[in-house]
Amino acid sequence: MASTSQPLGGKRACKKIFWAVFPHACFILSLVVYAFLGALMFSHIEGNRKVNLSEEYRKFLQSLWYISRNLSDNMTENEEIFKDKIHTLLNTAERDWFVNPKDIWTFFGSLFFCCTVFTTVGYGNTYPVTRTGKYLCMLYALFGIPLMFLVLTDMGDILATVLSKSYNEFKKLQSKILASKLCSGSTCNKGNELKSRAQSKVVINEPLTIMELLKSQAGVKRKGIKYRNAEIFEMLIARENEHTKPERNKSVERWSSCPELARGKTMCKVIENFDKIGKQLEKFDVPIVLMVLVIFVYISCAAAILPNWETRLDFQEAFYFCFITLTTIGFGDTQLEHPKFFLFFSLYIIIGMEIVFIAFKLGQDRLIRLYKKVISFCGEKKMPSKKVYPK
How far is 135 from 109, CA to CA, in rounded Å? Predict the structure, then answer.
């Protein structure tokens, strides 16, 4: 019996773990599938578009030809004037004139674009040009951004739980260390003696005897002997059943008798897990200085790793780029030469955005408390003072 019960218990434990992890995995998998579908869609639409040489492109080439001809005819022309003309002309140029769309809208390039859309970063270096691509981009963002924030909220609960427990364990350890330093040997021994005395005085309430049970029932005494004996007998049977009847596992009972009930119960628990999303984040309360320190360390680690494949970036530029990315500002002034390598950094972006989101939530709570204190203080100042009249 023990050998058969252990596999059943292991299967039930695995099922519980699976259904507990299912909501979190569902959100993450939905976001990954959504990003891959968007990458396929945009790479097909924007990558296969035809580049039409517009009138502006012809004017640009004509002006460039005039400038080069004047330079060759008049070599004594001021160099500064030539630089100004070239700079002004190049500012009017568009990137699409010189770049093949298929080189930009590869699968990895489109996947990087989709990540910048639903994370609301929006660097601006890659954007749809066709009218169909622009409409689909708006529709894609309309569903992708809520899904991204749902993933952030869900993963934020897990991260908030981990940070809260770590912070509480650290506080407990700190209090134990302080208590051990402050506690001397004599006082600790006295405290232990008091605890042992208190424990020795604890009275364990055992089940009532039959005579005590009969004495406690005042209503039984007033009845006749016949009815009294019958009621006493029923009470004794009920009392005996309470102490001898083993507790039955209702979940096992349902599972063995009717599996449909157990499945319904499991589905209810899964639905409850969906309803609990964001609850842990609302209870999260740690010092804001600690969160700022976590953000600084988190960005510093990425800033030390990123220059290994982005050789144009040093530590300071990489730190600036990571901060602008995680805060979803996304100026686009710093561009990546190898976006496909940064795609493997997407997990870093999601977790980092969660940390920043939690820090912003803490800052928001602190601001609300500050506003409440200021308003209550101003209200107390404006309250008219009570006049005391002489009797």
Answer: 19
